[in-house]
């Protein structure tokens, strides 16, 4: 019970402070779960991040669920999801119910929080790079992943880069021991199989329901399909939801206003579904939409992770993971540049603030929560000057 309470408190804190989108969330998770609390080590964390990049759904939320699963079993995974998702869901419900024209994206504190995301992700890239991309072979794979993601502007580029890194690693690291960390996961085999079966059954059933049902059933079906079929996180789900919901359920202007609000609040971008569901059918619609879009990712975490921990003990898989882990650093570095750096750092003053926050985090050992508060205050002051 105490462990579950701890998981909820930590995930809730991350849900309140993790601004900047999916990749920034991975930086916050690294600071909190790996560096500060040591619930998993760097190698296990990189393995978890790599696996969730391969799975459809919200990758950062799935990483959080996976760490909750390691720490507190299936209930821990559920609690981790609730804590991380609750703050942004509540804020977006309020935004939808008020139905006013808030321009949160232009607020001064939001700009400051974007600069915080630069510092957080930079620290995570540096920390993971010194463990997972050391030596000429790993550095080569990191640079290969960096180039691939930057040059191939496609949502599936990350998956392709990871597959290529795994294949290269299989042959490049024949003389090296496997580098995968240990994820202590205790989930009954029957439960894991049941989760995978339920995922497939719902994946087949929901498109049918979306075409023949109405109201909340149709809305729930659309959201489940979005969570089950979209790779690449919250930004990539935008066209799928827009095509499915506009103009039958809401107007294009209302859709885009909610998406702007979703990017301005902390936590997972998939809580955009909370806003959409609330606009369509009030609080009930918001709750159903939220649960439906996250359910596929949760079922995959419960179904895949226990088997993944066994599979990666294989020597060949271990060599592939060395390559994948190095590539993960390159993917994070690419995201640090675009969209995090390019959308946040516009002036010399922005760069100075971002670098100062990075120094506070890396060298003065300030907590991410304190960095978030400082960044929000500096952004507000910069906006007033």
User: What low-confidence regions span 5 or more consecutive residues with pLDDT below 50?
Assistant: none
Counting DSSP H or I runs of 4 or more residues, the number of helices is 15
- Shape estimate: globular
**Helix share bin:** over 70%
Pfam families: Chromate_transp
Protein name: Chromate efflux transporter
Membrane topology: Multi-pass membrane protein
Transmembrane segments: 74-97, 109-128, 140-173, 193-210, 222-241, 286-308, 320-337, 343-361
What would you note in describing this structure?
The chain crosses the membrane at residues 74-97, 109-128, 140-173, 193-210, 222-241, 286-308, 320-337, 343-361. It is found in: Cell membrane. Belongs to the chromate ion transporter (CHR) (TC 2.A.51) family. It contains 15 helices and no strands. The chain is mostly helical and 385 residues long. The chain has one domain (1-385). The model has no long low-confidence stretch (mean pLDDT 87).
Provide the descriptors you would attach to this structure in a database record.
single chain; mainly alpha; 15 helices
């Amino acid at each position: 019970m105490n462990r579950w309470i701890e998981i909820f408190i930590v995930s809730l804190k991350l849900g309140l402070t993790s601004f900047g989108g999916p990749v920034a969330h991975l930086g916050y998770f690294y600071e909190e779960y790996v560096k500060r609390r040591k619930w998993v080590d760097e190698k296990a964390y990189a393995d978890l991040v790599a696996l969730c990049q391969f799975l459809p759904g919200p990758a950062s939320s799935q990483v959080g669920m996976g760490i909750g699963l390691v720490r507190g079993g299936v209930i821990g995974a559920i609690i981790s999801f609730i804590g991380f998702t609750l703050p942004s869901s509540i804020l977006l419900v309020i935004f939808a119910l008020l139905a006013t024209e808030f321009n949160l994206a232009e607020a001064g504190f939001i700009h400051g929080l974007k600069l915080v995301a630069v510092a957080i992700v930079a620290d995570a890239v540096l920390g993971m790079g010194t463990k997972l991309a050391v030596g000429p072979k790993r550095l080569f794979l990191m640079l290969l992943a960096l180039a691939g993601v930057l040059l191939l502007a496609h949502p599936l580029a990350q998956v392709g880069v990871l597959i290529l890194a795994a294949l290269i690693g299989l042959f490049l690291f024949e003389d090296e021991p496997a580098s995968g960390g240990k994820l202590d996961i205790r989930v009954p085999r029957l439960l894991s199989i049941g989760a995978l079966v339920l995922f497939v059954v719902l994946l087949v059933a929901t498109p049918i329901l979306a075409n023949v049902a109405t109201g909340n059933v149709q809305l729930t079906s659309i959201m489940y399909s979005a969570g089950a079929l979209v790779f690449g996180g919250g930004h990539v789900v935008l066209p799928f939801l827009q095509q499915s919901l506009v103009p039958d359920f809401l107007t294009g202007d209302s859709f885009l206003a909610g998406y702007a609000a979703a990017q301005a609040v902390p936590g997972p971008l998939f809580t955009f579904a909370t806003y959409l569901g609330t606009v369509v059918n009030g609080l009930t619609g918001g709750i159903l939409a939220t649960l439906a879009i996250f359910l596929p990712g949760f079922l995959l975490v419960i179904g895949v992770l226990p088997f993944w921990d066994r599979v990666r003990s294989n020597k060949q898989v271990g060599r592939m993971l060395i390559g994948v882990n190095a590539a993960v650093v390159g993917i994070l570095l690419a995201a640090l540049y675009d969209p995090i750096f390019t959308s946040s750092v516009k002036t010399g003053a922005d760069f100075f603030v971002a670098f100062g926050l990075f120094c506070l985090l890396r060298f003065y050992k300030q907590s991410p929560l304190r960095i978030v508060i400082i960044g929000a205050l500096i952004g507000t002051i910069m906006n007033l000057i």
